Amino acid sequence: MTTVGIGTPQTRQGLGSRLAALTRIVELGPGRVDPKLLTESGQLLLRAGDRLKLSSDHTVVALAGGTGSGKSSLFNSISGLDLSPTGVRRPTTARTHACVWGLEGAGPLLDWLQIQWRHRFARASALDKGESRLHGLILLDLPDHDSIRALTDTEADRLIQVADLVVWVLDPQKYADASTHRRYVTELAGHDTVTVFVLNQADRLAPEELAECVTDLDDLLRREGVENPVIVTTSAVTGKGVDNLKVVLADTVARRRAAIQRLEADLDRLTRRLGKIMPDDDAPPPPAAIDDARRIGLTDALCDAVGVPAVGEAMENVYGVRSVEWVGWPYARWAKKLRPDPLSSLRLGDLKDEIRGLTGGSVSAQPAEVDNAIQALADGLTTGMHEAWQNGVRDAARSRSAQLPQVLSEELTEVAPSLDRVPAWWRLLLVWQYLLVLLFVAGLVWVGTALAYGVFEIGTLPESLEMFGDAASLPWVGLMMASVLGLGVLTAVAARNVVVLGAANERERLEREMRRRIGSVAEGMVIEPVERELARYNEFYGAMRSVRG
Amino acid sequence: MKSAANRPAHPGDGDPRLGDASPQASGGAPEEHPESLGEQTVAFRAIRDDDVVSVEDDESVQDDERDESVQDDEQDESVQDDEASPAAPGEDGDAAAPGGGDDVAAHAGNPGDEGDEAESSDEEPSDDDAAPELSIRPAAADDGDSDDGDGDAGSPGRDDEAPELSIRPVESGEPGEEDSGAGESSGSGEAELSDDDAPADGDANPELSIRPADSGEDGSGAADDDASSGEDADPAEDDEDEDGFWPTAAASDGTRVRETPVPDEVSEALTNALAALRASVTGLSFGLDLPGVEEARRAQAEILTQLDDYVIPRIHMSTAPALIVVAGSTGAGKSTLLNTLANARVSATGVRRPTTATPVLACHPDDYEWFAKGDLLGGLERLEAPSHKTGTDGLVLVSTERLPQSVALLDTPDIDSVVETHHEIAHRMLDAADLWIFVTTAARYADAPAWRLLRLAKERGARLAIVLSRVPPKSREVVTKHFVRMLTEYGLGEVERFVINESKVTDGMLPDHEVTELRLWLAELSVDDQRRTQAVQSTLTGVLDSFRTRVPALARHLEAQVAFRAELRRDVDTAYAAAMVEIEEAAGNGSLLRGEVLARWQDFTGSGDLMRTLHLRRPGRFAGKASHQGPERLSALKTALRTALESVIVSAAQRASEEVVARWLNRPGAGETLAATPGLGRPSEDFVRRAGRTVAAWQEHIVQLIRTEGVTKRTVARLVSFDVESLALIFAIGLLGYGTTEVEAAGKGALPQRLLHALLGAESLRNIAAKARSDLRARIGMLFDDETSRYIHALDSAGIPDEAAATRLYQATYNLEVAR
């Protein structure tokens, strides 16, 4: 009953690194964590920084409690002087009084606590016999927190939040007040090591009543989550039990750890709350970077948005069709032209030219499909993440999605095939085909002359042209003509095959090139921001783990 | 003389009211209280407009106006005191004459009518026969006092309806509901004054003229608390402003107020009004977690319990044993006090805090049956001894000879311990109390919870006595003085106080001499029926008054909920409307035709398939059959188009759902919990599938349209047939804006359009285009309707009250006022 529980075996170093982790959380948190909690974290950091800078030789002990519980009497009783006025009027104390055992170095701490000068008192501890064990104690007599005055005054509240050790002064009448328990004790459950409960006015109760009362209080506190409540019964009036309290205080002061324990307890509490809204136990081991499968998935989806396969196919088909005009067998083309054209009957003759004029060359991305591709990536990555982070990743992925279609279009248009280009060898083949046609015509002429002069002998040819009139040449000429025709067909077929093959190759090359470009655009505009966000996510949860200690 | 001085103010008030109701009479309205007129109009306009104003409604308007005007009276009292008695009758007369004259003119000269409210006479020109309710009151007046004020206002018709009297006297006899006019004139008890009153009132408000008659019958003492406290000058003010420090009030009232007989029958109107109020409060549900919803829910529960536990039973039995509730902080000594007064250990005491968990009711054996029967606090189970199991609905009932008759003491749990259910029980008990004894201690009297309770008492207008116990004898003076000062500063300086010294408690009881004073007070209360009745009535009135603000507060919250729901609804609609616009834009400006669609289109046209969809019509060949040349390209284009449109829809829906959630999260309160409903932040599970189906169905629809309505131009039809599927696709491409953007650079107009134009003709093309567009819009609309219904469902599952509930509440409050 007279010992403060042993604190967690953590060093000051541990606290420092936890606070550093909390700093990271505060930096990374905005937009992801409840702003209120972040504000509180910031305040805790500030307070911790202040407190750790200030005298570590002093322990701030606050006597808190409802009006009329005897805080001031106890204060006076511990200090052995009538420093804080006591009275029967409620509420009595309106300003905090402080009594310091061992003044050196306490000034800045008292300034930080905002204790008014005229309410500061010092015990020159060394001179007091038996009081040296309290050296380093700063005892605060707080105003009450439950009277109508306290409704407009938050001084008690403020000091309860910053004191190293809070001594709750309760009395038999008020020990179960909601104003104490709901607002502070339950909230600060887990601060066991830096909280002491004093049941004052013990003289008002018979011993057995007192025992019952203490048991009841103990039960109540345990129900509220205070694991090892330290309860001291005192009577400020008779002085009974005050020494016990002094022992507890001396113990705390001597160990000089209350300030750190208090901060640790605050940190624990904050961490619990953070953990509640940002549970990381069930969070998946967050992907450090976007794996290849996802990258490929994204590139595929973006390719679909641009229509890469379609562009390739279109190119291939259009080449195939168009090449016929150049490298096809001329006779087939001419035959086709003889067929009636529906368009001409619609007087839409120029439509054909227009279709032919479809130059292609502009490749563009479908914005909605780009959107959905990015969405799918974000969804896949964030499964199981906290909603705030899901949104974060999604927003990161989308951060440049507005420009993405445009950038993609520009990038790809550079490599887009122009459908109306005509390779030189097409022209050569055309010439060749016409040459063959010419040969064929020449053959026809030869046959004609041979028939006319050689067979029917309608006249004689000049000497120089005699060979054309020779009927004997007919089979040879016929053979040649057949060969010419055959050569034409063969050439057409071969050229066609070459075109198709070439187009297929071209298509493959094109698709590869487009994929490559799309991939690099996606890398810069989607993957990179997402990875940054993921890194932030990882760092946040890393900080969460280290703040947990 | 006070009452006499006061009275003239009434007609003065009555006239503006009349003026309010019927414009003709306003000419005669004195300008004494313009502000009261303003208040009244503000307070009751809305409902009056909505309702078919019955006579009773109007009456209550006036009642209420009267209540408010009473305060004006009080403010202006000094002025009025000077001039009232001489001036007022004259004024009344003036006011009466023109007002009456107008009415007569308006209503075919029925003198009885003009006495009635203008509105009712508007509705029913022949009042004598048509408005039975109107005539009831005068009849009541007749009954009581056949030729007093009534002679003036009374018409032959009234006498005819005299049989219906029986309804009214009940109400008029009942204290608390009565109109102030009655108390006033009865208080004065002077015939001539009531004569003066009668014509004036008769003009402004016929009921007023009745009241004197009634009270005349009952005797001068018939004035109820309400009337006397409301109307009479100084003591009345005390009552109103300071929660009735009743000894004072009693002192001044005692001389004039005669005991009101307990009504054997209760005004049906009041009961009905309360039942209606109860019904309309019961049905409320506050589904959205708006700021303040917790308070609203609590207030709703409180009102319900108070109606059941207290108001309805109390209305029925009026002055039966008064229930005095002892309330206060934990450890203040409530149980000890009760034990001491009962001289028996009826309630557990101890050092454990909190001590009392189950309320203990101690009463005289004579009253035991009555409390055991349990109208009052009927919802609580009666117990023999406290038990831990009962939770919040038990009540220990004990009887003791030491307590005086007609006064029961109820020990309650604390109001400030860690056990929050205790606070609820305590407040429930207080809600059912006729008198409050507030116990605090020397250590506690500055506690915030204690003062919250005092404030509540003040707000509710409850009769209050304060016990300051556990006062150390040596500091008694200091503490008491300080406490009294605080009370005085708080406006409770006049409240009855008892001080009990801190003394040795034996067997849960204080020494008897400590409570002598309190015991005397109780005895007095027990013996003096009139004082008790008055206290009871005062509290009841206070509670009924409190409904005037509490119920409308509920209604306001309800309205806020309804409005908030509408806002949330609007957020959804806005987001999806924006999505719709986005889609239409994308579908109109050609941005759909990018990426794959464009490539497929180029493929389709460039490979010659487009041309192949057209066939020359040749004899013997099957016209219009599907193209066999390149179905794979055709279907690829079709699929690409569907995919594109689908992704536009999906993307828009995704944004819309995110938008809704973001908007909801921005709204304080309910938005958060609703947005936390899983899945609202994205389109529903099968949305993509449904969107795909929708687009496919639309494409089918276009094919149908082309097939049925795309009648080829005759000149063309002779020559060419076309493949419907392909043409539908070309049409869709054209419809979705091919050629409107950079997609088509050729200057001669977009290819598909020209082709279609040539084939179908402009007229037909336009028709089909319009139909196809509206069909697409309708289909997407349906798709989005399904999406929005998820949000509506989320809203509805939170249980949102219907919009009429607030109106019903206002109306119930109003009706209650009418009935009072």
Topology:
The complex is a heterodimer of chains A (549) and B (820).
Chain A: H1 12-28, H2 35-53, E1 59-64, H3 71-79, E2 97-101, H4 106-113, E3 120-123, E4 137-141, H5 155-162, E5 165-170, H6 178-185, E6 195-199, H7 207-223, E7 231-233, H8 242-255, H9 258-277, H10 292-306, H11 308-327, H12 330-338, H13 342-345, H14 349-357, H15 367-382, H16 387-398, H17 404-413, H18 424-455, H19 474-548
Parallel strand pairs in A: 1-4, 1-5, 2-3, 5-6, 6-7
Antiparallel strand pairs in A: 2-4
Chain B: H1 2-6, H2 9-21, H3 34-50, H4 55-75, H5 77-106, H6 111-115, H7 118-123, H8 127-130, H9 132-144, H10 149-153, H11 156-160, H12 167-173, H13 180-188, H14 191-204, H15 206-218, H16 225-231, H17 234-242, H18 246-254, H19 268-282, H20 293-317, E1 322-328, H21 334-342, E2 360-363, H22 365-373, E3 381-383, E4 394-399, E5 407-411, H23 420-431, E6 435-441, H24 448-460, E7 463-471, H25 476-489, E8 496-501, H26 516-527, H27 529-588, H28 595-606, H29 609-612, E9 614-616, H30 631-666, H31 670-675, H32 687-709, H33 714-717, E10 720-722, H34 724-735, H35 751-760, H36 762-797, H37 804-819
Parallel strand pairs in B: 1-5, 1-6, 2-4, 3-4, 6-7, 7-8
Antiparallel strand pairs in B: 2-5, 9-10
List keywords for this structure.
heterodimer, A: 549 residues, alpha/beta, Rossmann fold, seven-stranded mixed sheet, disordered N terminus, B: 820 residues, two-stranded antiparallel sheet, 10 strands, GTP binding (chain B), P-loop_NTPase (chain B), rRNA binding (chain B), Dynamin N-terminal domain-containing protein (chain B), Dynamin_N (chain B)
Structural notes for this entry:
Chain B: It comes from Planobispora siamensis. The complex is a heterodimer of chains A (549) and B (820). With 549 residues, chain A is an alpha/beta fold. Chain A has 19 helices and seven strands. In chain A, strands 3-2-4-1-5-6-7 form a seven-stranded mixed β-sheet, with helices on both faces. In chain A, helix 1 packs antiparallel against helix 2, helix 1 packs parallel to helix 9 and helix 10 crosses helix 19. Chain B has an eight-stranded mixed β-sheet with strand order 3-4-2-5-1-6-7-8, sandwiched between helices. Chain B starts with a helix and ends with a helix. The longest helix of chain B has 60 residues. Chain B has three domains: 226 residues, no CATH class; 209 residues, 3-Layer(aba) Sandwich (Rossmann fold), CATH 3.40.50; 212 residues, no CATH class. In chain B, helix 25 links the parallel strand 7 and strand 8. Classes of the chains: A alpha/beta (549), B alpha/beta (820). Chains A and B meet through helix 6, helix 7, helix 10, helix 11 and helix 13 of A and helix 24, helix 25, helix 28, strand 9 and helix 30 of B.
